[in-house]
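Quick one, tokens below:
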């Protein structure tokens, strides 16, 4: 695993790691550790929908691929604390068939995991937001016609804007800062004449 990007994300290239992460409990574990910091299997258990022993098994599986590792001991040194290896992760669609299959499985699980997020935010979080945050929140649905090279430039520019905020020391954040979930979907449409899969 490498951290070869400006956002400090782990870059997953091994199809086995993609398949390992493509599990709802493992994705929940990794997301919780990235968002809240180190935790034990027992602490994670209620939030990830698994018993402490099952959560511990999933943690060891993630550790086998370098996605999590041991954290500094807490007050109870008998408990094993875990932390995410990086603040985020990313992967690209590999060229080989095995890699493509693994990337699709992980992509699908990630889409399923985040599908309900906008609705939950709209019903649970948005009504209680301060008007300033409410005005800045929301979504845009923009269609753009670009080449593959231009899309890569757009993605690079977005990361360039985000990187200083993502990677800055927590002590440098303004006192009124809060977590923001940015969902970035880059969904190229089928070109004229290209087949699209029929979903039954």
């Amino acid at each position: 695993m490498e951290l070869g990007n400006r956002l400090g994300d782990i870059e997953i290239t091994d199809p086995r790691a993609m398949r390992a992460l493509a599990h709802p409990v493992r994705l929940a574990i990794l997301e919780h550790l990235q968002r809240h910091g180190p935790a034990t299997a027992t602490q994670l258990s209620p939030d990830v929908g698994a018993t402490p022993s099952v959560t511990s098994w999933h943690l060891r599986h993630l550790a086998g691929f370098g996605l999590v590792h041991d954290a500094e001991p807490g007050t109870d040194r008998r408990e094993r604390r875990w932390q995410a290896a990086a603040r985020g992760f990313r992967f690209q669609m590999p060229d080989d068939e095995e890699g493509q299959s693994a990337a699709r499985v992980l992509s699908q699980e990630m889409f399923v995991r985040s599908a309900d997020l906008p609705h939950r935010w709209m019903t649970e979080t948005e009504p209680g937001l301060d008007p300033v945050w409410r005005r800045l929140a929301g979504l845009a649905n923009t269609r753009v016609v670009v080449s593959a090279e231009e899309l890569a430039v757009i993605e690079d520019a977005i990361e360039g804007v985000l990187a200083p905020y993502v990677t800055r020391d927590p002590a440098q954040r303004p006192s009124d800062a809060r977590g923001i979930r940015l969902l970035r979907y880059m969904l190229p449409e089928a070109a004229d004449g290209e087949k699209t899969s029929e979903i039954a």
